Amino acid sequence: MRPELNAELRSALRNFVTAKLDPIAAEIDRTGAVPPEAIEVLRKHGYLGMLLPPEYGGGGVDLATYCLTLEEFSRSHRVFTLLLDYSTGLGPLGILRFGTEEQRKRWLPDLVSGRAKAAFALTEP
What we know:
By secondary structure, the chain is mainly alpha-helical.
């Protein structure tokens, strides 16, 4: 990513965090619960499923953009990075890379829209 684009994106993300996420973070700290509006605001502004291809409803952004977004969101509250992982992290990426086309069509749009959440589990022998 070109440095000037990086600076512009970082500035836009910080403005979004201040205006939209910080008030939700304050509520999370006050109540100890994540309100449904947290997922809704991320969905509404296109942050869910950022790494997933557009054909499944994702944003199709590159890894550098996604990592910069995680970094800026984490300035407000760790929960926002977890919410992005529900829709873009190991679970959805596993479906994208190793799932059948039927599984991709079934699950990825629901993950990108926030209607479903994914988790990833790993064990060793």
